C-alpha cells in the first residue's frame, strides 16, 4: 500500500486559522487599552454598527423611521467595537487562507495544463517528423526505381512488370489452379470410361 503525501500545508492553514482566535483576542485587548486605537478603530465602527442595526430593526418591524439613533455609551461601544474587530481579524485570516489555497490550486491546475499542452505538442512534433520521414523515403524510393529503370534500359535487362504479388492474388491463383486441375482429372476419367 502506497502512503500518500502528508498535507502539511493544509494542516498549517488549519493551525493558522485556530491560532487566529486567541491572536485576535490579544490584539483586541491591546487595542481597547490604547487611546488612538480606541478612538479611531474601535468606537466609530461600533457606533456605525449600532446605528445600522437599529435602522434595520425599525424597518423590519414596521415601527417607522427613527429620527435619531441614540449613541452607545463608551464602555458598550468599546465592547462592541472590540468584538467587531476580533471578528474582522478572524474573517480576514480565514479569507486569506482561502485565497492562498485557491491560488495554490489554480497554480497546480495551470501546471497540469501546461504539462498536458507540452505532451500534445510533443505528439504533434513526432507525427510531423514521421510524416517528413515518410515523404523523404517515398522520394528516395521513386529515385531508386527510376535509377533501376535507367540501368535496365542501358543493360537491356527486362524488369518484371510486377515485382510483388499480393497475398490475395496468390490465393486466387492457387484456388483457380486447383479447380482447373480437378476439372482436367474429371474429364480424363470420363474419356477413359467412354
TrEMBL record:
Full protein name: OPA3-like protein
Organism of origin: Trichogramma kaykai
Keywords, sorted A to Z: Coiled coil
Superkingdom field: Eukaryota
Hydrolase in keyword set: no
Homology family: Belongs to the OPA3 family.
InterPro entries reported in the protein's UniProt record: OPA3-like
PANTHER family, sorted: OPTIC ATROPHY 3 PROTEIN, OPTIC ATROPHY 3 PROTEIN OPA3
Record's compositionally biased regions (Basic and acidic residues): 159-172, 185-194
Chain spans, region Disordered: 159-194
Amino acid at each position: 500500500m502506497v502512503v500518500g503525501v502528508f498535507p502539511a500545508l493544509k494542516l498549517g492553514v488549519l493551525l493558522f486559522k485556530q491560532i487566529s482566535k486567541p491572536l485576535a483576542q490579544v490584539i483586541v485587548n491591546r487595542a481597547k487599552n490604547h487611546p488612538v486605537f480606541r478612538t479611531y478603530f474601535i468606537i466609530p465602527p461600533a457606533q456605525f454598527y449600532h446605528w445600522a442595526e437599529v435602522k434595520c430593526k425599525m424597518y423590519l418591524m414596521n415601527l417607522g423611521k427613527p429620527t435619531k439613533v441614540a449613541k452607545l455609551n463608551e464602555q458598550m461601544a468599546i465592547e462592541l467595537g472590540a468584538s467587531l474587530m476580533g471578528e474582522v481579524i478572524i474573517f480576514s485570516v480565514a479569507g486569506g487562507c482561502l485565497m492562498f489555497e485557491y491560488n495554490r490550486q489554480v497554480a497546480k491546475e495551470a501546471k497540469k495544463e501546461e504539462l498536458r499542452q507540452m505532451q500534445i505538442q510533443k505528439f504533434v512534433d513526432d507525427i510531423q517528423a514521421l510524416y517528413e520521414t515518410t515523404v523523404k523515403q517515398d522520394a528516395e524510393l521513386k529515385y531508386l526505381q527510376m535509377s533501376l529503370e535507367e540501368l535496365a534500359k542501358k543493360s537491356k535487362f527486362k524488369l518484371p512488370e510486377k515485382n510483388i504479388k499480393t497475398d490475395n492474388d496468390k490465393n486466387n491463383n492457387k484456388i483457380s489452379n486447383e479447380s482447373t486441375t480437378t476439372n482436367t482429372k474429371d474429364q480424363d476419367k470420363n474419356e477413359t470410361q467412354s
